[in-house]
Amino acid sequence: MVFCACNGLIRKLPVGEPTTNGGSNIKLRMPGIIPQKNDDYLCTAFDARDEQLYITQYKIEGSAERAHHMLLYGCSDVPSTEISWDCGHHGVCSGSSSIMFAWAKNAPPTSLPPSVGFRFGGTQTTVKYLVLQIHYAHTLPPGEKDYSGMDIDVTSEEQKYIAGIFLLIGGAVIPPFMPKVHADACCTVNVPAPLHLFAYRTHAHALGRVITGYKLGQMNGQIEEIARGNPQWPQAFYGMPHVFDLESGDIIAARCTYDSTSKNETTYMGSTSGDEMCNLYLMYYTDAKIGTSYQICTDQCSRVPTLFPLDSDEPLLPNPLLEEHALHGSHSQENGTVVISNKMSINLVSFF
Which PANTHER family match (predicted)? Predict the structure, then answer.
């Protein structure tokens, strides 16, 4: 059972407050949730069928001390008519689903490049509901309720490109006392229009040391590194050094590397904070008319075992500032924003 300081059914998408760029800012919040146990996965939905909108920025209102991670899903329908539900057992969406944003470890806000947005509502997309999911690693102090969530900047102006996420999920059994254990994922791309990768996010739990991503182009046979992240840093979407184009026939791959030297028992993949995960999120833009907004890869690389370079499991250099921010940082600071559009503007200028 889920307890919340609320009554009622699914809420309509809140009315946004005007922004300086002509759009609006919409606040998506949990309705006074009281998690009943550690590792609760709880959801709340917003009916977004009425109007087609594009999300251009995400900003989290919450902290890693309370929310282990937070996801925004786009759903064609939802499995509950209640204002909130246990989505660890009853699912997030019914019908089609896509991940539109992911956050953990006090990551700062994320802005998209110009002319790019995550599309929802209206008639051109299957996303009719926005569902906010929070993984509560622990229960709250007695008497407290949770109103965490995210602010999204939206516009009704039709965008030239739709944004999307390509999620790679690896799996492995992690023995104890091992300095390096790999979990890999590889897939051959099959998309109706080219994907233009511009940002990435890594996600693992306590044993994760580095997550890397690679593209193998079918035309030139060249292996390119597209991502290298430390999952113990703020789990934001970080801008790539340049835009990577991905077409049907290319191979995309991810490798997660774990250090279990401090563990005296086997660790398995799973949904609790004591388990492990291997997720690499690749954010992209694609043709708004025929492109797809979500791709997922779970193949364990049995067909291309030699894809990964020798340094694929080499961690990044320590960064005490980012590690401290992941534990205690405040992403309400404006100067903490990861503005992908600025970082990538030189590489994107020819497209817009």
Answer: PEPTIDYL-GLYCINE ALPHA-AMIDATING MONOOXYGENASE
- Backbone φ and ψ of 133, nearest 5°: -115, 135
Instruction: Dump pLDDT digits (tens) for 117-146.
Output: 999 999 999 999 999 999 998 999 999 999
DSSP class of residue 110 equals E
Do residues 4 and 132 lie in contact, with contact meaning Cβ atoms separated by under 8 Å? no
Catalytic residues: 68-69, 133, 135, 203, 205, 277
* Torsion angles phi and psi, residue 88, rounded to 5: -75, -30
For residue 274, give the 3-state DSSP assignment.
coil
> Binding site: what residues are annotated?
68-69, 135, 203, 205, 277
Binding-site residue set for Cu(2+)? 68-69, 135, 203, 205, 277
CA separation (Å) from 54 to 34, 60, 161, 286? Answer: 31, 18, 10, 14
Q: Give the residue from 312, 323, 108, 320 showing the smallest Cα distance to 210.
A: 312
> Taking a C-beta distance cutoff of 8 angstroms, is the pair 187, 299 a contact?
yes
Does the pLDDT value for residue 343 go beyond 50?
A: no
